[in-house]
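FORM 12-B: Structure-to-Sequence Request
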């Protein structure tokens, strides 16, 4: 499986070069942007905040919608994704972390960890709440079905251009921006909370990931739906969940508890373990 993943990974990247060959139009650009936002959202609101952290509740039908859309992003099924992500939080930036720049280096934390074959199988003992749904197990096992469906839809809409921009380019963009949370958001940015890991808050990443860039806030309270705390910490995923809650699609959104003390401002940009000693 590792070899298949690696070949697909390289093939998808090389296929991005077809943008120089296929016809381009505003309609095609809109399809790519739509594909990016829709699947980025499915990863952040679905794979991350719902399946990994259970930060809100929803119906079994909408749960399936989240799982299906997330699977089209070529990041494996929801059970696999949630299992490794829960392990990341349990062992953040220790040698047992799934993807820590501190221990495996930047490339490993970005994409190396899932390309080298060492994480092909997830330990299902930490995702028993998800494994009990046969439809989620089905998607984890047959993840190619949503992927191919999405690619075919893009081809039907825009032909070869639709396939290249709507599927290939937008999938690779979502993949690297998502991976940036595992790599960049543990080395680049500021720290509001003195968490035991290297997590950072990064406004640029927050924009491209629809709110996931407030990663230090997230590591401080991982099971709440909101990652941006201040009004200027834009968190599009959280706002969308509030809208879905208002119309009854999701419910019981977990909000932040005002418990942890933020770091003093002078220490907020220092590396963990190197913050000035309290006086
Ligand atoms: Zn993290
Ligand atoms: Zn998380």
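FORM 12-B RESPONSE
SEQUENCE OUT:
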């Amino acid at each position: 499986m590792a070899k298949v993943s690696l070949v697909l990974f390289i093939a998808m990247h090389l296929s991005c070069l077809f943008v120089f060959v296929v016809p381009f139009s505003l309609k095609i650009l809109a399809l790519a942007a739509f594909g990016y936002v829709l699947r980025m959202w499915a990863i952040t609101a679905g794979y991350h905040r719902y399946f990994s952290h259970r930060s809100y509740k929803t119906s079994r039908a909408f749960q399936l919608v989240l799982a299906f859309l997330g699977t089209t992003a070529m990041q494996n099924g929801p059970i696999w994704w949630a299992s490794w992500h829960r392990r990341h939080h349990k062992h953040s930036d220790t040698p047992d972390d799934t993807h820590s720049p501190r221990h495996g280096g930047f490339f490993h934390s970005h994409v190396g960890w899932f390309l080298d074959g060492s994480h092909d199988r997830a330990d299902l003992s930490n995702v028993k709440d998800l494994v009990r749904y046969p439809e989620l197990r089905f998607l984890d096992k047959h993840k190619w079905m949503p992927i191919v469906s999405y690619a075919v839809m893009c081809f039907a809409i825009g032909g070869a251009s639709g396939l290249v921009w709507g599927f290939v380019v937008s999938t690779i963009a979502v993949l690297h921006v998502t991976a940036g949370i595992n790599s960049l958001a543990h080395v680049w940015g500021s720290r509001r909370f003195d968490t035991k890991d290297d997590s950072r808050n990064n406004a640029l990443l927050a924009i491209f990931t629809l709110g996931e860039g407030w990663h230090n806030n997230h590591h401080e309270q991982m099971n709440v739906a909101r990652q941006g705390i201040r009004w200027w910490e834009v968190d599009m995923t959280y706002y969308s969940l509030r809208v879905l809650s208002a119309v009854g699609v999701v419910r019981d959104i977990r909000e932040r508890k005002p418990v942890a003390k933020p770091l003093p401002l002078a220490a907020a940009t220092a590396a963990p373990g190197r913050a000035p000693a309290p006086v």
